[in-house]
Amino acid sequence: MATTKAPDSSRRSDRSRRAIHDAALALVTEVGYRRTTIEGIAARAGVGKQTIYRWWPSKAAVLMDAFLDLAGRSAEGAGSDEDAPSDDAAQGIPDTGDLVADLKLVLRATVDELNDPVLEAPTRALTAEGIVDAKLGAAFVHKLLDPQLALYVTRLRAAQEAGDVRADVDPRIALELLIGPLMHRWLLRTLPLTHAYADEIVDYAVGGLAPRP
């Protein structure tokens, strides 16, 4: 007698989570953060409202998880590209011994991410809402930005030990010389965000961080 295989609840949950993530990102892109609702996400994903509330306490939590999942998938896709940087570069800032080249590699990759249509709209929505919603902003910084900024601190400290950066430089402030101009141009759309601009930021910043004669 043939046995009937029980449904795989974990696979069903994974499919539902992915559908909810995709629905949340689509809605925040189409209508903005404020007009995105749990009800709208549930309807778009084809699940019940209670399914969402069983896994997440709020709309902000759904969107944060969805964005982190999207960022992770984008990183995996970049890592599978034959022309993409090595695993070390994809996971953090490489240390080849050439600080300028290493920083340019990472800032160029950041430019590509910020210009990616799939990532740009939800990134803008969450960044903008995080300015007025302190709780969401803190979660955005803690879960997404802080781990990335820590990679810059690690690389800059290694450059200090190698004598490429002055010993009195605060790596946390120094990294803002790199990230700050990039985000300013991207957020305000003052001028195009390009690889050439990223390279110039690195040249200007490292020139100021280098040991004085």
Q: How would you explain this protein's 3D organization?
A:
The chain has helices at 9-31, 38-45, 49-55, 59-79, 87-91, 99-115, 117-132, 134-161, 171-188, 195-209. The chain has ten helices and no strands. The radius of gyration is 21 Å and the shape is elongated. It is an all-alpha fold and 213 residues long.
Q: pLDDT under 50 segments (min length 5)?
A: 82-90
**Count of alpha/pi helices:** 10
> How large is the share of residues in beta strands?
under 5%
Order of helices and strands: HHHHHHHHHH
Tell me the radius of gyration.
Answer: 21 Å
Question: Shape, please?
Answer: elongated
**What's the average pLDDT?**
86
Largest sheet: none
Helix content: over 70%
DSSP strand tally: 0
Distance between the termini: 85 Å
Strand-pairing-aware structural class: mainly alpha
Features:
213 residues, mainly alpha
Chart the SSEs and their pairings.
Elements lengths: L8 H23 L6 H8 L3 H7 L3 H21 L7 H5 L7 H17 L1 H16 L1 H28 L9 H18 L6 H15 L4
Short description:
It is built from ten helices and no strands. By secondary structure, the chain is mainly α. The model is unreliable at 82-90 (pLDDT under 50).
